[in-house]
Amino acid sequence: MKRLFWIGSFVVVNGLAFAGPQLQFDRTVYDFGRTANVSSVVGTFTFRNAGDAELRIARPAPACGCTVAGVKPEVLQPGETGELVFTLHLGNMRGIVQKTIAVPSNDPQNPTQQLTIRAEVVRIYEVNPQTIGAGDLLEGTNAQFTVHVRRVDGQPLQIERVVTTSPVVNAALTSTGSGDPTEAIITVTVDGSHSPRRFSERVQLFAPNESSPFTEITVVGRIVGDLLVLPERLSWGIGNFERLPASRVESLLTRTITVTVAKPNQSVEVSAPEADLPGMDLQLTALEPGKRYMLVARLPEIPKESAQGAIRLHTTSAKQPIVEIPYQITVVGK
User: Fold this and answer.
1) Strand, helix or coil for residue 178
2) Rounded Cα–Cα distance for residues 75 and 286 (Å)
3) Distance between alpha carbon 266 and the CA centroid of its chain, in Å?
4) How far apart are CA 187 and CA 162, in angstroms?
5) How far apart are the first and last CA of the chain?
6) Handedness of CA 283, 232, 66, 81 (dihedral sign)
7) Residue 44 belongs to a domain with what CATH number?
8) Which of 122, 140, 169 is the last residue of a domain?
9) What is the mean pLDDT of residues 52-72?
10) How far apart are the C-alpha atoms of 161 and 210, rounded to whole Å?
11) Which residues constitute the domain of residue 250?
12) Which residues touch 185 (CB under 8 Å, ≥6 apart)?
């Protein structure tokens, strides 16, 4: 029987030494020090194959979704070098930030190398609120919000441009805060004249002579038409149902939708549900005729493959004669 063990960078089998790969980084900690007014930082770890056999590196695994990393090349011969390039998205992080990246390889002595990224994030600008939740806005109406911006290092706040990413959201610099040169007020207006939709838009503030915004304000919400549908889409996750009781299977195959008339002084009739999936059972009930309805959608059988499509409801609304509810069926573990 062969005996295998490692000595240094060599594998030893029955007393005979064989060369092996060795992953060696120029550093394992990348410290950016103090950073201010940046949305992300980018850096590079360099590495080499310090062993005597082919080194294979697997995909790096950052500890959080705020970090993206990649290596090139993934296979190195002895003595060859490569790079691991990473981007750390700072978002609204403040203070000391420390993130890690795990780098798997076929290095027998160190199969997973841990790399660390550090930064002290200093905010020059304070924005309140950073995110605006506009909620549900009736079609044809507007909503207005006020955002206070302050420069915390005592320097005058200069805003040259205010840019929005969609016509649904408008924004403008309306005044400085209480005559303080370090403060400003931004007025954000959500324009409900657009068709019903969910939106997630940004308001970008630019300092003079800068091509990148020094901060962004996120505006999220929904423009609601004559009818409010909850949930807005249906999803089924289909696994192994064979061992489940019949009552449990029934509940897993069934989904419920409520349709509510958004304007209190309006009456809308909802009827004739239909679906892209043949055989889908659709039962529409008027909980409060002209005001509120319930739709129960049931799959005809346990699906054998994934599918997607839509359920449609016919209405007497001139603006929304047809309400479409997308659905997604995902079959897993089959």
Assistant:
1) helix
2) 64
3) 37
4) 10
5) 41
6) positive
7) 2.60.40.10
8) 122
9) 94
10) 10
11) 227-331
12) 146, 147, 148, 149, 173, 174, 175, 176, 177
Report field, pTM of the whole predicted structure over 0.90: no
Q: Are 232 and 311 part of one and the same domain? A: yes
Mean pLDDT (the chain) is 88
**Side-chain half-sphere CA neighbours of 76 within 13 A:** 28
Number of domains the chain is built from: 3
Q: Taking 80 as the threshold, does the pLDDT of residue 11 lie above it?
A: no
Q: How far apart are CA 191 and CA 140, in angstroms?
A: 8
- Mark 181-192 as b/e (b = at least 16 C-beta within 10 Å): ebbbebebbbbb
237 and 322 within one domain: yes
Q: Over 80: is that where the pLDDT of 166 sits?
A: yes
Percent of the chain at pLDDT > 70 equals 91
- pLDDT tens per residue across span 258-290: 999 988 888 999 999 999 999 999 999 999 999
- H-run or E-run covering 251: helix 246-253
Burial class (CB in 10 A: 0-12, 13-18, 19+), 151: buried
Question: Within 13 A of 79's CA, how many CA atoms are on the CB side?
Answer: 0
Which range of 17-26, 170-179, 227-236, 243-252 scores highest in mean pLDDT? It is: 227-236
177 three-state secondary structure: helix
